[in-house]
Amino acid sequence: MTVKSLKDEDKLPIKQVINAINKTMDDVLRVVDAMDLGRTEVKSDGVYRTFKDGRVIKISGGNFTKKRVSQKRIKLF
């Protein structure tokens, strides 16, 4: 099902939305890997970028501890 107007977007099944997002994400990761831009990863002590050849570069330092979510309800919009 394709969305033709903003009124129709609520009629999409959530599984179809998730599949579309995953497909787009796969396309983005394929381009990032082809251009060797590196994948970004957040660890507890900073932000790192990992390249295809195994190089790891620290982009930013800081305290990035995991946060707990008090509510499990997600609001998309």
Description:
By secondary structure, the protein is of the alpha+beta class. It has a domain at 12-58. It is built from one helix and three strands. It has one helix at residues 14-34, and strands at residues 39-43, 46-50, 56-61. Strands 1-2-3 form a three-stranded antiparallel β-sheet. A hairpin with a 2-residue loop joins strand 1 (39-43) and strand 2. The longest helix is centred in the N-terminal third of the chain and has 21 residues, at 14-34. 0% of the residues are buried. The mean pLDDT is 79.
How are the elements arranged and paired?
Layout (H helix, E strand, L loop, with lengths): L13 H21 L4 E5 L2 E5 L5 E6 L16
Structure at a glance:
With 77 residues, the protein is α+β, with helices and mostly antiparallel strands. The chain has a domain at 12-58.
